[in-house]
């Protein structure tokens, strides 16, 4: 029996190491899937806003002779926002910062559009515009919620891959720390979509 004792001990150590490393890897995989799901919800929320903005632009164009510069800025910002995609598995702080900047540009252009709309009282009677206005406000809240849940998913993942001794092995498995979603200045506020159409007369 003593002759086999070293082999038994070795087998126990190997099995313990296997299940220990397996647990680290599988937990990281599960947490990363949560991050990917949360990021998917972020992108879905932004895509919904982009779709609504496209319909809003068409409605405004049909209801008034709108300033071409304002509409052009919105259309270009929307094109940039829809063209940018990020792989949440390999997301970097630089990519997330660029994403924030692009989406912030979209918010800024949209805000300018909505402010300019105040000069066109005829839109007050446009049910489609009013519906889009309400949906945009709701979507901005959905975006904020999605961003918050993404950060909530990032925290346990980063904790798992950074704590010792996990940090020794997670790099071998290809898991890296992921950046938190930090909104650009003013991005935490939904564009003001409350208008007083009676203040100004139509041009």
Task: Describe the SSE topology.
Layout: H1 5-63, H2 68-83, H3 93-117, H4 127-162, H5 166-170
Helix pairs in contact: 1-2, 1-4, 2-3
Description:
Residues 190-203 have low confidence and may be disordered. Helix 1 (5-63) runs antiparallel to helix 2, helix 1 runs antiparallel to helix 4 and helix 2 packs antiparallel against helix 3. Helix content is 69%, strand content 0%. The longest helix is centred in the first third of the chain and has 59 residues, at 5-63. It has a single domain (2-170), classed as de novo design (two linked rop proteins) (Up-down Bundle), CATH 1.20.1440. The chain is rod-shaped. It contains five helices and no strands.
Low-confidence runs of at least 5 consecutive residues: 190-203
- CATH class category label: Mainly Alpha
Under CATH, the homologous superfamily reads: LemA-like domain
Mean pLDDT equals 81
Order of helices and strands: HHHHH
DSSP strand content: under 5%
CATH architecture: Up-down Bundle
Give the structural class. Answer: mainly alpha
- Calculate the terminal CA-CA distance, rounded to whole Å: 99 Å
| Proportion in helices | 55-70%
């Amino acid at each position: 029996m003593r002759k086999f004792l070293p082999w038994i001990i070795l087998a126990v150590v190997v099995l313990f190491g296997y299940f220990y490393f397996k647990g680290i890897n599988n937990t990281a995989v599960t947490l990363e899937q949560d991050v990917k799901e949360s990021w998917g919800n972020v992108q879905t929320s932004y895509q919904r806003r982009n779709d609504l903005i496209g319909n809003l632009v068409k409605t405004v164009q049909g209801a008034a002779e709108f300033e071409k510069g304002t509409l052009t800025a919105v259309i270009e910002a929307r094109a940039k926002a829809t063209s940018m995609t990020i792989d949440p598995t390999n997301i970097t702080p630089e990519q997330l910062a660029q994403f924030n900047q692009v989406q912030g540009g979209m918010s800024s252009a949209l805000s300018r559009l909505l402010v300019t709309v105040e000069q066109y009282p005829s839109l007050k009677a446009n049910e489609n515009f009013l519906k889009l206005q309400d949906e945009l406000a709701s979507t901005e809240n959905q975006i904020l919620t999605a961003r918050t849940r993404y950060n909530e998913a990032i925290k346990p993942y980063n904790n798992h891959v950074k704590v010792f001794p996990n940090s020794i092995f997670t790099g071998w498995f290809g898991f890296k720390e992921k950046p938190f979603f930090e909104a650009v200045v003013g991005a935490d506020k939904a564009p003001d979509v409350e208008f007083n159409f009676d203040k100004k007369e139509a041009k």
